[in-house]
Amino acid sequence: MFVRTFHACLAVVLGCGAIGIGASACTSTESATNLRTSGPPMVEQVLMDETFTDANGNQNQRRIFSWGTHPEAMDMGTIVHHTTSSLVNITSPGIRVIMGSLLIGNFLEEVQCRQPVGPDGAFDKVPLGATPDDIAKCAVPMDTAALALTCKGPHAVCLCQLPGGCNGVADGLPVGVEDSNQDGAADIHQLIKGAVSFKCTANMATPTLTLSVQMDQAASYWNPSGFQQPPAMGGFDAMGPALVLYPKLAVGNTNVPALPSNSTCQLVFDPDVVGKNFAEPCTPVDSDGFGGRPPECDDLNIDQCPQSCMAGDTSEFTFGTEPLVMTLQGITNGQTGVSRTADIFAQSFDVVPLNANTIGTIQIFEGAAMTPYTLFTLSLTQPNQVDIHFTAATGLAANTMYTITFPTDFQDAYGVPLPQPQSISFTTGS
After folding, report:
1. Cβ(125)–Cβ(208) below 8 Å
2. Does residue 23 register a pLDDT over 80?
3. Strands 422-428 and 196-202
4. Each residue's pLDDT tens digit, 177-207
5. Which pLDDT band holds residue 279 (cuts at 50, 70, 90)?
């Protein structure tokens, strides 16, 4: 992603507001970008993907404005509405949160050091007011005495913060910014843990299940460039300034970019995340059903659009996620001639990760009398896939109907259950 190598200035002056690792000087942002110059930073638009049922009854996916709109949205065929069926599996281009003014990047991203230095391991936050020159002073080669001489003072970064020292470097002294190409800038940076998250509440009666969904720190990022005119390359997904977010869920030894299914989610900023006027972000009052930038501002620059919200209040913007739905790989409901001996793979629609502890709730019934069938084993072979293996020597009975049932105890990896029981029937071959 290009934002991994291009960033604006670190300095808070004039709201450059991003972790700076390559720029040589700051320039004023009070220009043709038409960003807001007063009030708290507002979430103007949110782009995400949702599932929908097309005219033929098929499940499909599309990119939408789930919050706010844009004068060119209709011309470019982009749907504008609050979604209740956001994709759970978040892949590129991610969830794009477009702001009406700049945020201070020092509170969003941190740079990689040459070795662990403190609470964030080998990453360290960049002090407010630091410049690219300060980063360069802390990126000189480790094997020279210059590092300790140049990387010091209130704007120094990657100083050891461990009482016992950092692999031979004493507490308070620099270990150096990771800069393998020696261009004087940090090679790698990441989103600060907890800077942005989603609070999701499962849409079920009892018990109440509220989840804090963290972001993938390496994949998510802050892009301080852009404005309200979509360029020819990239379209709406090149508008900015914007946060591009990928949620992260640990499933076994794998990180899955997933939200909880069948839930209502709200965007949450850490209180440390602020704009250049040090006000916390907020979501404008949704008085017309669009939220964010409304249609009545189509003929106005975003800084002239009359909107208001209380700093730190993001409650106006919520979205719903798609429910958990199970399918059988290569088998449709009512299908005949199904193999008697081949394993059956049950998988979730849209690669929703599953709860390994609940796959044992799957039931199989034989015949029209729905006699419980028990000669099978279950194993989670992929985050979203259950292998159903039949253990009888000759497999399933010939020319017989079988029904695989997923009860409401069956859950996604966040612990959100199926909204209602689901059954899929098929008939074996001879």
Report:
1. no
2. no
3. unpaired
4. 999 999 999 999 999 999 999 999 999 877 8
5. very high
Residue 305 pLDDT more than 80?
yes
C-alpha 101/C-alpha 42 separation (Å) is 7
Q: Does 418 score more than 50 pLDDT?
A: yes
Buried b (16+ CB within 10 A) or exposed e, 23-56: beebeebeeebbbbeebbbbbbbbbbbbbeeeee
Cα torsion angle, 374, 379, 382, 388, sign: negative
**If you average pLDDT over residues 208-229, what whole number do you get?**
94
Q: What distance in Å separates the CA atoms of residue 423 and residue 429, rounded to the nearest whole number?
A: 20
Q: Which pLDDT value is given to residue 7?
A: 40
Other residues' Cβ atoms within 10 Å of the Cβ of residue 138: 28
Q: For residue 42, which of 393, 363, 317 has the smallest C-alpha distance?
A: 317
Question: Which residues contact residue 159 at a Cβ distance below 8 angstroms, ignoring those fewer than 6 apart?
Answer: 117, 124, 151, 172, 173, 174, 175
User: What is the rounded average pLDDT for all residues in the chain?
Assistant: 90
277 against 8, higher pLDDT? 277
Nearest Cα neighbor of 12 from 381, 274, 323 is 274
* Residue 24 clears pLDDT 50, i.e. is over it: no
pLDDT tens across 68-80, in order? Answer: 999 999 888 899 9
Q: Which amino acid is at 199?
A: K
Q: Are residues 326 and 261 in contact, defined by beta-carbon separation less than 8 angstroms?
A: no
Token digits of residue 309: 């919200």
- Name the residue type at position 277: N
Q: What percent of the chain has pLDDT over 70?
A: 92
In this structure, which long-range contacts are made by residues 214-217, counting pairs with CB atoms below 8 Å and at least 24 apart in sequence?
Answer: 214/247, 214/248, 215/191, 215/245, 215/246, 215/247, 215/248, 216/191, 216/246, 216/247, 216/248, 216/255, 216/257, 217/190, 217/191, 217/192, 217/193, 217/248
